[in-house]
Amino acid sequence: MVRPHHFVPNEETAMDNMFQQSASGDVSRLAYEASTRAIQALRDKGVRVHVFEDETGQHPDSIFPNNWFSTHAGGRVAVYPMFAASRRGERRDDVLEFLKKYYRVQEIIDYSGLEQDNLFLEGTGAMVIDDITRIAFCGRSKRCDPLLVERFCTAFSYEPVVFDAEDPNGVPVYHTNVLMCVGTDFAMVGMDAITSAERRSEVAHRLQASGRDIIELSTEQLNAFAGNAIELSTSTGDLLLVISQTGYRSLTAEQIATIEKYAEILPLDVAPIEHAGGSIRCMIAGIHLDPRPGLPADTVAD
Q: Collapsing DSSP states into helix, strand and coil, what is residue 278?
């Protein structure tokens, strides 16, 4: 996770991110405090969290590191091309060096040079990856080029399932991870946002074929960031669904009961950060690498 010291909603990304809102008050301080509380809450539940500080004030969206890199079993790391020029400086060599020092990294595949060709794929924002069935679910947008999805999936051994998704005004959903969350035994999906009935059916079939319960999310729940959640494992191997308080409050009692059959729910108050159009899922870059001996429980890196 990256803790921002000068967070503000990014004016450049507001052009295609309909989830963004204007912010008032000392949003930088509020975002810093919200991220600090989220980090501590995760640690209290037994989740190992590595924290990197961003004190520069040059990268308004640095709190969302899942867009510029992802990690994968077998010691592989991907680095991604970003659509907004203001976000490209978020890529940090110190993060990659940290991963190499404390985890077994065999290969880093860097796609960022494709920005010069106007090809963009914003990591696990653009793709919701199911490591059980080896499927990458992708909503087509300016930030998710199907050609690059194919290239990534070939290199990392996933099958792409690409679809179009729109909000009620016909605007493409900017990132797939605000539309769906895939856990081990359940998935939360805004099915109605997928424009093609055939593709809706395929997405449902792929998820149900793995035995998952599907929790369908309404437009209102997507707008509350209920889909922007992530399942994490604790140090004891328990499953934890991390979701924002905004998203949690939008869920029905029946939906909550279904989730709780499989995972403990951890709602976190990240409302100041949600003004930027992303929520708790966007704030977490998961690590799927084997640790080296001597890996610290938690770290804070400058």
A: coil
Which pLDDT tens digit goes with each residue over 56-80? Answer: 888 888 999 999 999 999 999 999 9
Angle at 278 between CA 277 and CA 282, to 5 degrees: 155
> In residues, how long is the chain?
302
First-to-last alpha carbon distance for the chain, in angstroms, is 12
Tell me if residue 136 falls in helix, strand or coil: strand
pLDDT digits (tens, 9 = 90+) for 130-188: 999 999 999 999 999 999 999 999 999 999 999 999 998 898 998 999 999 999 999 99
- Is the pLDDT at 277 greater than 80? The verdict is no
Q: Are 37 and 227 in contact (CB under 8 A)?
A: no
Q: What residues have CB less than 8 Å from 259, skipping those under 6 apart?
A: 186, 188, 215, 241, 251, 265
For residue 83, the number of C-alpha atoms closer than 13 Å in the C-beta half-sphere is: 22
Edge to edge, the sheet with strand 159-163 lists 127-130, 135-139, 159-163
- How many Å is the maximal CA-CA distance in the chain? 51
Which residue is associated with the tokens 């209102």? 220
**What is the rounded CA–CA span in Å between residue 84 and residue 142?**
10
Residue partners of 53: CB distance under 8 A and separation at least 6: 2, 3, 5, 300, 301, 302
DSSP letters spanning 222-266: HHTTTTS-EEEE-TTS-EEEEEEHHHHHHS-HHHHHHHHTT-EEE
Is the per-residue pLDDT at 19 higher than 90? no
Alpha helices in the chain (DSSP H): 27-44, 93-102, 123-126, 146-156, 197-209, 219-223, 245-250, 253-260, 271-274
Residue 302 in this model has a pLDDT that exceeds 60: no
With DSSP H G I counted as helix, E B as strand and the rest as coil, what are the percentages for the chain, rounded to 5? 35, 25, 40
Summarize the confidence of residues 29-35 as an average pLDDT.
93
Q: What is the pTM of this model?
A: 0.92
